[in-house]
Design brief:
nine-stranded mixed beta sheet; binds uracil; alpha/beta; binds 1-O-pyrophosphono-5-O-phosphono-alpha-D-ribofuranose
């Protein structure tokens, strides 16, 4: 699993916040805040290679050349529903980013993902695309989402998952070896119902307060 394009977060703040997420006693309000904060911390790491160009700025002292973000604006693409919880954290870093959406749900019995919505920003082929989903379990949803984005022309893809199972990491990176995966932590494995263990339960339900 040690590959250049799989980056594990080892920052104590991220690890601490993930532990809070796992706790069954963490309520919806705190859970949402934590998901957003973790997304921001992971986004900071994932966006360290954004292209920059020198621009001219006049300070109160003198004119100088100084770096600014270059190229087409970033696209953030949450996988609905749970990925929505991570969008605000990325937008806190890059407020001008465009936001696309991919709607997928896992069939409860087969665990196979089904698409119900896909809307991406224009000129997607020119943008750095940050796909966000807190959970990478079997990897079926993540892999399907990346395939949709590629079908629409997307090329520079980074995938941010807060908790992954080894099975999901393997599936996503075998299907899409050209992307970079940023993962908060990799757990033990999957339950018979394809939940991550120990995981945090159903991320969508915990973010939106549904059951
Ligand atoms: C969850 C999660 C991922 C997917 C991961 O979504 O947010 O998208 O499961 O599982 P996988 O790696 O086995 O595909 P879910 O299908 O529960 O939909 P929801 O976000 O609408 O609750
Ligand atoms: N989806 C979730 O929300 N949680 C899991 O553990 C697996 C898939």
């Amino acid at each position: 699993m040690e590959q250049d394009n799989i980056i594990r977060m080892n920052h104590p703040l991220v690890l601490h916040k993930i532990s809070r997420l796992r706790d069954v006693n963490t309520g919806t309000n705190e859970f949402r805040k934590l998901v957003s904060e973790i997304a921001m911390l992971m986004g900071y790491e994932a966006l360290r290679d954004l292209p920059v160009e020198e621009i001219s700025v006049t300070t109160p002292i003198e004119e100088c050349m100084t770096p600014a973000l270059a190229g087409k604006k970033l696209a953030v693409v949450p996988i609905l529903r749970a990925g929505l919880g991570m969008v605000e954290g990325i937008l806190a870093l890059v407020p001008s980013a465009k936001v696309g959406h991919i709607g997928l749900y896992r069939d409860e019995e087969t665990h196979i993902p089904h698409e119900y919505y896909c809307k991406l920003p224009d000129a997607i082929e020119e943008r750095t695309i940050v796909v966000v989903d807190p959970m990478l379990a079997t990897g079926g949803s993540g892999s399907a989402a990346v395939s949709f984005i590629k079908k629409h022309g997307g090329k520079h893809i980074k995938f941010l998952a807060i908790i992954a199972a080894p099975e999901g990491v393997k599936r996503l990176m075998e299907d899409h070896p050209d992307i970079t995966l940023y993962v908060g932590t990799v757990d033990k494995g999957l339950t018979e119902q394809a939940y991550i263990r120990p995981g945090l339960g159903d991320a969508g339900d915990r973010i939106f307060g549904t059951i």
